[in-house]
Amino acid sequence: MLLTMLMLVGTGLSDANGDEDGDPEFGGQWNPDSLQFSGWVWDQGLNDFVRAVPGVLSSDPFQYKYELQCHLGGGDFDTPCLARQIDCTNGPDGTAGIPVTWLKAPVGITNPSWSYYSGPTCLYDAQPEDVLLRIAADIQQQFENLPVNAGTVVAQPSPHTLRGAETNFYAETTEQAFDVTMFGQPVHVVATPVQYTWNYGDGTVFGPQPSMGGPLPQDRWGEETRTSHAYMATGDFQVVLTTSFRGTYSVNAGPALPIPGQGLFGAPPQTVSVWRSLTRTYADDCITNPQGQGCPGVVGTR
Fold first, then answer.
1. Rounded CA separation 35/52 (Å)
2. Do residues 163 and 233 touch, judged by C-beta distance below 8 A?
């Protein structure tokens, strides 16, 4: 099985004169040490492979690469390990893959000392570095199209509040995870809420800012909070919450990598009815004359 797997990987690359299709973009003899996470491109001027420069800077302090499972370097493999090697012959759509382990090292260091990160796991592609670069290029669009739940808007008091009084708003939302397939590879995406924008429906917008707000006990309703709002007119208002999510993704159980931009997702509108408050003084005693003017008193009206 190992010989078949190595033949499959080898034929997915090229000979010294270019790739099997005659395209000079990839070339050079197959070397297991070059099968790593950072992408490689063929440089016509240097007549050699060079490391691809990513277009997005990362705050991750580590860089990552993968190696064939059981690989000891060069053409040597750990024989006892081969007996326990995971089976990657039945991948997505019947494709075959390669068993790999993920390594990490501090970023920005040339020829670093690599340490184990995760695995073993399967990577399904004839040119793995190619598919990882394609995923990196498309992950932002994939992230923005995920069915991320922006959260629920909660108002205190609700559904009615008073004109001129502070209405406390807060969001209920959580971190969410998704499993998708990109270019035949399983990709795990985690979306974490980080910022919130409140549109209170009367022309007032607050945010983006990091506070999701929080509930108040009923005896404190009417107090000003970080996310509260006081309406100056009566009527029905549609309150809309937009939540910004930061994302990470991992391919084939590899390291969690940052998604370059944030995703914006809107919550369903919450209707708030704003009433005015009226106070009147009446002479009737409602105990002796329940039908007297102002009995029962109406303290809120539209």
1. 13
2. yes
**Tokens 């099985």, residue?**
1
Determine the Cα angle at 193 with ends 192 and 197, to 5°. 160
CA distances from residue 215 to 66, 205, 223, 269 in whole angstroms, order as listed: 47, 20, 11, 19
Query: Contact at 8 Å (CB) between 132 and 249?
Result: no
- What is the tens place of the pLDDT at every residue in 118-148? 888 887 766 666 687 778 878 999 999 999 9
Domains and CATH numbers, the chain: 2-124 (no CATH), 142-277 (2.60.40.10)
pTM (predicted TM-score): 0.60
In percent, the amount of the chain with pLDDT more than 70 equals 70
Secondary structure of the chain in HEC code, one letter for each residue = CHHHHHHHHHHHCEECCEECCCCCCCCCCCCHHHCCCCCEEEECCCCEEEECCCCCCCCCCEEEEEEECCEEECCEECHHHHCCCCCCCCCHHHCCCEEEEEEEEECCCCCCCCEEEEEEEEECCCCHHHHHHHHHHHHHHHHHCCCCCCCEEEEECCCEEECCCEEEEEEECCCEEEEEEECCEEEEEEEEEEEEEEECCCCCEEEEECCCCCCCCHHHCCCCCCCCEECCCCEEEEEEEEEEEEEEEEECCCCCEECCCCEEEECCCEEEEEEEECCCCCCCCCCCCCCCCCCCCCCEEC
The DSSP bridge pattern shows strands 115-123 and 160-162 to be unpaired
